[in-house]
Design brief:
The protein is α+β, with helices and mostly antiparallel strands. It folds into three domains: 119 residues, Immunoglobulin-like, CATH 2.60.40; 117 residues, Immunoglobulin-like (Sandwich); 113 residues, Immunoglobulin-like. The chain has two helices and 24 strands. It is globular and about 110 Å long.
Length: 455
């Protein structure tokens, strides 16, 4: 009996181990299924994730992938438990990738976000893979979003002016003397940077002779000017550029920051403006944008309405009021007036938080951002004031009612006028009476004489 009990106990233990292994296998980051270039990323305009589907899985058009918080329990995933960033792997209309030898590369960006959660805020996340439209997790991969390593106070600079770049290295990076940063044209592919493809304006972060800045608490401020140009490309011509950060003398991009150089002659010209700076609640805002020479309009260039209290160099996801739109060619775009001159109407149509329209009375800013970033390219401040109430005209005084006239005239004579009429100049009444008497006498005498003549 004891032998049988030991066999049963051993069998149970093996079953538990196998079950645990299977469970871990089902939810583990299965080798070769999900991969990323780096498991630590900064808030970026696009996130690239690769999938290699096992041979034993029959590809289904409803295979899908989503991004979830690291706190999400992968054993109880269901509708509504994600953050609204997902897409299909297959041939569905929401397909963002293409199978090639059972390999698919998915680019996550604003087009895959259905809840306004792009770009991802700093934090811990996981990519989950699901087959056949189900919610059973078939593979997952964890990653971390950290604050931007490279930053500037503005993404719009004037040709020839020095540029100050801020670098905040992550805690898990061991600073090396040959970590470096350089300026590149915007169109250079971050995944394919090669020697000689830059502008020849660069420097080391560490102790090299070309180093600038003193590392304090892993933070640097580097000044870029003509002293760093080794190829005569300073001042930078008007156009779109980016800073690329590399570790350990490599050409693998650790982080980047995009900026635009405008012509010196346009230094004082506003990029974003309106014809007036005072509006009533509910009044449409006609925002005009004159893009600087050298900046190519991107589909993810955008504007947003923010409280005037938001600092220009500290704009982040969630700091706004849900009033924003892209100015490029996607579904939220508005037709340009000309190639570089745009008119954007801001009203309830772009309110992703409907209760925030109309704008409440107060001070506001409209910010312009390039390429889905949160670095202010330009801004315009305006005021919303209470609409004055329409004045109500004062009613006229009600006249007092007059007494109704009597049917018969009053017996008593009317009172004599208080004022004596002014006497007319000319003959008096006595003279007139004497003249009438004289005339009567003469007339009578004439009649008597005539009668005697006739006799």
């Amino acid at each position: 009996m004891k032998k049988v009990f030991k066999v049963l106990l051993f069998t149970l233990a093996v079953a538990l181990v196998i079950s645990a292994f299977c469970a871990l296998g089902a939810f583990a980051d299965e080798t070769g299924i999900i991969s990323m270039d780096s498991d630590t990323i900064t808030p970026v305009a696009a996130l690239k994730v690769s999938f290699d589907i096992p041979e034993d899985h029959v590809i289904d058009e409803n295979d899908w992938v989503g991004i979830y918080s690291a706190d999400a329990d992968i054993e109880s995933i269901g509708p509504g438990s994600g953050i609204g960033i997902w897409c299909y792997l297959g041939t569905n209309t929401s397909d963002m990738g293409e199978y090639t030898d059972r390999h698919v590369e998915i680019t996550f960006d604003y087009t895959t976000s259905y809840a306004g959660n792009w770009p991802l805020a700093p934090g811990e996340y996981q990519v989950l893979l699901f087959y056949e439209g189900e919610y059973a997790v078939d593979a997952h991969h964890s990653f971390t979003v950290v604050d931007k390593i490279i930053s500037m106070d503005t993404s719009m600079v004037t040709s020839g002016d020095p540029m100050t770049v801020k670098i905040n290295l992550p805690e898990d990076h061991a600073l090396a003397g040959d970590d470096w940063i350089g300026i590149y044209k915007k169109e250079i592919d971050n995944n394919n940077v090669q020697s000689g493809s830059g502008m020849g304006i660069w420097c080391y972060l560490g102790s090299n002779t070309q180093s600038y800045g003193t590392p304090e608490n892993r933070q640097f401020e580097l000044k870029f000017d003509e002293e760093l140009s080794v190829t005569g490309n300073w001042p930078l011509a008007p156009g779109d550029y980016k800073f690329l950060l590399f570790y350990n003398d490599s050409y693998k991009v650790a982080d980047y920051f995009e900026f635009t150089v405008k012509d010196k002659a346009a230094e004082d010209k506003k990029v974003v403006y309106m014809d007036k700076n005072e509006f009533y609640p509910g009044e449409t805002l006609e925002v005009k944008i004159d893009l600087p020479e050298g900046h190519s309009l991107e589909s993810k260039d955008w504007i947003g309405i923010y409280s005037a209290e938001v600092e220009n160099n500290n704009v982040y996801a969630g700091a706004g009021i849900g009033m924003w739109c892209y100015i490029g060619s996607n579904t939220q775009s508005f037709e340009p007036m000309e190639s570089s001159h745009l008119l954007v109407e801001v009203d309830e149509a772009i309110a992703t938080v409907p209760e925030n329209w109309p704008l409440a009375p107060g001070e506001w800013k409209v910010f312009l951002f390039y390429n889905d970033s949160y670095t202010v390219a330009d801004y315009f401040q305006f005021t919303v004031v209470e609409k004055p109430a329409t004045p109500t005209p004062e009613p006229t005084a009600t006249p007092e009612a007059t007494e109704a006239p009597t049917d018969d005239p009053a017996d008593a004579p009317t009172a004599a006028p208080t004022e004596k009429p002014a006497e007319k100049k000319g003959c008096g009444s006595a003279v007139v009476s004497s003249a009438l008497v004289a005339a009567s006498v003469l007339l009578g005498t004439a009649l008597i004489v005539r009668k005697k003549d006739n006799e």
